Every structure is written in structure tokens, then in C-alpha cells.
Amino acid sequence: MKMIVATCGEAADSPRAFVLQDQPVPEPQGRDILVGINAMGMNPVDTKVRTGMEGERVLGWDACGIVEAVGSEVAGFAIGDRVFYAGDLTRPGTNTEYHLVDERIVAKAPASLSDAQVAAMPLTSITAWEALFERLQFVPEPGANRGQSIMIIGGAGGVGSIATQLAHWAGLTVYATASRPETAAWCKKLGADGIVNHRKNLAEELAAAGAGQVDAIFCTTHLERHWQAMADSIRPQGKVVFIDDPEHPLDLTVFKMKSVTLVWEFMYTRSMFQTPDMAEQGKLLTRVSGLLEDGTLVSTLSETLTGLTVENIRAMHIRQESGAMVGKQVLVV
């Protein structure tokens, strides 16, 4: 089978960054299923692993494909099932023709969407769902959180685009941050009630939008830049969830007087540590599949490339690192 191997530490445009290799097709054991990859998504984690780790890695942690074989302990899937998932950061990624994945973090793909549309969704959907409904503890039912509000920082990004849709579906008043006309329009299309400019002071922008303070904040990007503004924008006893990595120590005491809950979301926690509730990711992806099938959620696919080649993987990394992505990139094999 073909796979693209990345050399960590190399710039995306380096001729040494990516190489095409041919390896035997692996055999599933235990709870693993073997998936023939039809399409794979691109996420910030791909560039972070490439630039922040050492050695060689098969990157890619989003996929849609067909189950080709199952391990002896697999109960939920059969050969021929069309599935989608975000994989496991501790294992080889999806930049390959065939891929092994634990069945507990997999769900059957929505039938009405194309492979590319489906492959854009798993990682960002898991992250957004866990952040909103597990870390922030909103109720994951339509309209169940009316009267409560949230600010989503980075509303037009991959995770922000899903979080905006899910928060709107769950009844929250959503303020999404965007700084360009096209990103603002994207957020409004996905259900944002108000747009605030993240290139300005967020607290002042929220006040100008008539929001005052919000019950929760989901910070997907530029955590340090917005740290004090988040403390000013959150209501007393509110909650803030982060996925972004700070580069320097931060002063937690700016949130103390309001008794604010600060919590991290890292969607690989369950698979990385094999937590007892690991199968919850498969369950929530099943719910996401249903929401995609009935049109409640729309795919955030914005760019599609075709062919598992070094040139295409390189182009996706360069585009991801440009800081100008709206929605998600997907490669169709």
C-alpha cells in the first residue's frame, strides 16, 4: 500500500519533508478494523506534529473509508461498512491507502454525504462536541440551552465552524469571532447570532454587539492574545474551554474574582490513555452522523485535492500554515 511519511522538523516546502513509501497492508487484531481510505482531512495537528516532534511519522487524523477486515474482538462493524473517524495520535495517521483504527472511536458515515464532505468532519466534530457538551456541560439537545450565550474565538476555523453550528442547534446565543468579510459571512451562514472582530478588544466588541458578558467562551486559537479580554468578557461563575497551546505562562488569577471554570479540551485524551469511556467518541460521532444526515449540520469542506501524492500533502500543509484557511481541506485518494 502507498503511504506518505513525513520527516518531523522539516519545513513543508522542504524536499525532505514528505516521501512516498510502499508498505504491506496491515492485518487487524483485537478491536481494530482495517479501513480502505477514500478521503482524508487536514487539521492543525498535522502541522504541529510535523514541526514539533522528531523522527518520521505518517500524519493525518481524519478519514472516511470502507471496512476491509476486522479483528477478532470487533462487534460493531462488518466488512463493507462505510465509516468515519479521527484516529489516535499515538498511532500512524491516515495519509495512507489502508489504516488500522480501534472500533470504539469510529462511527458509520452519513450516507447522503460524499467521502470528501464526510472526511472534513470527524476531528473537528469530536473536539467541538466534547468542548461544548462535556467540558462546558451544555445540554446536547435541540434548543435545550436557550437564554445562555457563548463566544467562539476563531469562528471560521475548522473547530469553530462546527462549534458554531452545534451551539446554535443547542439553543445558545452564539457570538463568533471573525475579522474578514468572507469569514464573517461564513460564521453567519453557520448560525452565529453576532460577529465580533478578534483583531480588536473582544470585551469591547462584545459590548458594542449588545452582549455585555457571555456565559461561556470557547477559545480555539490565539489564547494568549485574548487572555485578559476573556477574563473581562466572561460572566461570574462562567466557563472557558481551550484547545490552543500557550507559548508562555499565563496568570490564572485574572479569572479568580469571578470564580470562572477553566478547562482544556483535547480530543485524543480518550484514545491516548485508553480511558474506560473511550467508546463515547464513537457514540458522539454516531450522533454527528445523524445531524449531518438530516441537514442540521453541514460539512465544513472548503477545498478538495485528488490523489495521495507528496505534492498534494505538501500543498495542504503549506495552505494550513498560511493562517488563511476557512473550513477544511480534504484529499480524496
UniProtKB/TrEMBL annotation:
SUPFAM superfamilies: GroES-like (SSF50129), NAD(P)-binding Rossmann-fold domains (SSF51735)
Organism name: Desulfoplanes formicivorans
Entry superkingdom: Bacteria
Record bears the keyword Metal-binding: yes
Annotated Pfam families: ADH_N, ADH_zinc_N
Keywords: Metal-binding, NADP, Oxidoreductase, Zinc
GO molecular function: oxidoreductase activity; zinc ion binding
Domain Enoyl reductase (ER): 13-331
Family annotation (NCBIfam families): adh_fam_1
Official protein name in the record: Zinc-type alcohol dehydrogenase-like protein
